[in-house]
Each structure stands twice: as C-alpha cells, then as structure tokens.
Amino acid sequence: MAQITSKSVDQPIRILGATSHFDVEEFFGSILAATFKTSDPVNIAIMRDDAFGAKRVPVGKLHKIDNADVRQSFEPGVDLAARTTAMLKLFHNMRAALHVPDQPPEKAPPSSGSGRNDAFGLLAAGLLNLPQPYSPIKFGLVWNIDKRTWVHWDGNTKSPIARNLLASLGLGAPLHGKHADLQFEMVKRQTDLTEKIRPPLYPFAIDRAAAQRGAPLFASNCNSCHGGPESDKRLYSVAEIGTDPHRAGMFTQKLADGFNTFLAELEAEGYRPPKEVGVRSTGKYFAATLSGVWARSPYLHNGSVRTMQDLLTPSQQREMRFHRGSHVFDEGAMGYTDEGAYILDATASGNSNSGHDYGTKLSAAEKRDLIEYLKTL
Fold first, then answer.
1. How does pLDDT run across 324-363, given as a tens digit for each residue?
2. 3-class DSSP state of 182
3. Contact of 160 with 191, CB cutoff 8 Å
4. Selection from 90, 111, 86 nearest residue 30 by Cα
C-alpha cells in the first residue's frame, strides 16, 4: 500500500499493491535501539545485575510475563523494581522474537531505506543461523500472484503460505524450538487475500495517441522477456541482463535446503508441512509481467533506478545518488521525485544500478511514447 500525490491532482491517492514507502528496518531498528538504550546499565542502575533481562532464561527463549506486570499504571504504591524487572523481561522477549541477541551490536547493519529490506538475509540469519552477504531488494510484487508458480525476484519460492510463514517468524512471531507461536489461520487468510490483488490502474491522465505509438515499441523492446506465460523461461542470468548480482548469488542451494528443512520440521496449530519442496535456488532474476509497472518505481530488483525514464537511460548515465521516500509521483518520468530522508548510493554494495539496457537506444520521443504505453498496462 502506498499513498501518492501528483501536481495534477488535489488529493492524495492510495494505491493497493504499490511499492510501500514503509522503512521496515528503521521501524524495528528504532524499537530495538530503544530497548537497548533503556537497558543500558548506566540508565538503569537498580537492575544493573540483569539490565538486559536475559538471566534465568535460555538464549533465544521467552520469559513468561503476566499482562498485569507490564500494564501502564500511575497508581500510587506500584512496585517500581518489580515493574522494571517485568519490562526488562519484555524487552528481552521482543529481541528474542526478532532473533536479536541481548547485547547491542558493535556495528549497526547497513540501512536499506524505505520500500526495501534485506529480506532473505534477515530470514537466513534469524531462522537458520546462516548470515549472508548484504543483498537489499525492494518489496516484492504482490498482484497476480495466483498466476505465478514461483515468486520473488529470483523465482525461488513456490508456496505462498510458506513465504508468509517465513516472513511472520522472521519478523516477530515467537518460535519455541520448532514450534511456531502464531495464529496459522490468520496467516492463511492473509495469504488467500493477497492472491486476489490485481494490478492498479494508472490514476492520472494518459496521452492515448502517444500510448498507441508506444505499443509496437513495447512489443519490440520489452515483450520478449516480460510477455508470454510466467514460466521458468523468464529466468535470466546476471551475465545476460547485467544487473546487481548480490541477490541472485546469495540465495544458494544450501540456503534453499535450509528453508525447506525448516518448513518440513515446523510445528504450528493448523499447519501441515508441504509434501514437496517449495524453495529452490535459481541464481537468476525473473522477468515479471509489466501490468501495473507504473506503480513499481524505483525500478530493478534493488530499487536502484528512480524512474522509468532513468531505466531507459544507458546505465552509465543514470543518477548514482537519489533520495527514497517521496510520495510525489512524476507523471512524465513515471516514478517518484528525488525527495525523502534516505539517500540511495548506487556505488554501495548491493545497490548497483547497472544493466537492463533494453530500450536505452530509443529516441527521446520514442521513450516518451513507450512510457505512455506502459501506463496503460
């Protein structure tokens, strides 16, 4: 979900399925930083012997806490020491559910910015204890999922419910050994709902004459990869398309085997392990159908190209730094304006904006016509 504005409209528009501007890493990072700051022995002298609430509980396990012990209260006579102890245990539980040690890291992990995260890197480290090289990606495509057999940027996951279970357990649903403490029926309901999402229609004006001229340009420059059945024929090697290799390379068969074993051994009320493996390694990138592509900027799997106009520019001429987080849509360039709190540096590891030079040799007029046509998809 994203809320966007444009110079041509007065009111913001909410688009279901568009690349969200939510900075998930900053959100969880802020919560974790707050727990660490609160637990700093300098700030909590009365509990210095167990400032992180980690004693008397196995590593990665959760304290049992009564809701009344952590409920906010300003009543006189509250046992502050007992309340503080309960809160520190709660902070420990929050970190444990997110698979974060009780001691703050010496160095903060890389920041991916709004609309991106290091998805499988976080899951591999948290669920499998297999840290991976930093490989940021933008949030994945969420419409027409029911028409695809394999999803994600590299076509590595076959089971939508497995995908959502891994995400739930990697981002806070408690895991006790192999038993998941979550409402499986709610995960299943959310999964079923996502399979009904369809591409959003372009909400602004379209130059229909230009779009008509752009149709044959799409057919000759885009359709050979992005058209036809959504099968493995749409998987392309990094060597062929030239985009950043980190995400394709990090998801090895060892990692796929680890997730398959995890899902096979997982226990949760209502959950039945898959009868066949649902995670694989391809080492390639999937060329998705371009329906609703107007709502998917910034472009490429790592969100390193701000607009479609930039994507149709030779890679060596693309802007190397821009801001992410803007809600203002540039209708001409088809993408968000260069605004926001986060600066994406395309020279940083995992952020390369190289490759995908298709359509870059078109004239300026032809590029405009092609962009107008893409808005109709």
1. 999 999 999 999 999 999 999 999 999 999 999 999 999 9
2. coil
3. yes
4. 111
Does residue 20 surpass a pLDDT of 90? no
What DSSP element (H or E) covers 83?
Answer: helix 80-97
Distance CA 63, CA 86 (A): 9
Tens of pLDDT, residue by residue over 32-51, are: 888 888 777 666 655 556 66
Question: 148 burial class (0-12, 13-18, 19+ CB within 10 angstroms)?
Answer: buried
Supply angle C-alpha 117, 151, 293, rounded to 5. Answer: 75
Nearest to 20 by CA among 141, 110, 131: 141
Closest CA to 369 of 330, 334, 338, 329: 334
* Residue with more model confidence, 85 or 307: 307
Q: Two tokens at 202?
A: 């372009």
Q: Which amino acid is at 313?
A: T
Residue 90, phi-psi category: left (phi > 0), alpha (psi -120 to 50), beta (remainder): alpha
The confidence score (pLDDT) of residue 1 equals: 83
DSSP per-residue string spanning 7-25:
TT-SS-EEETTSPP---HH
The pTM (predicted TM-score) of the whole model is 0.89
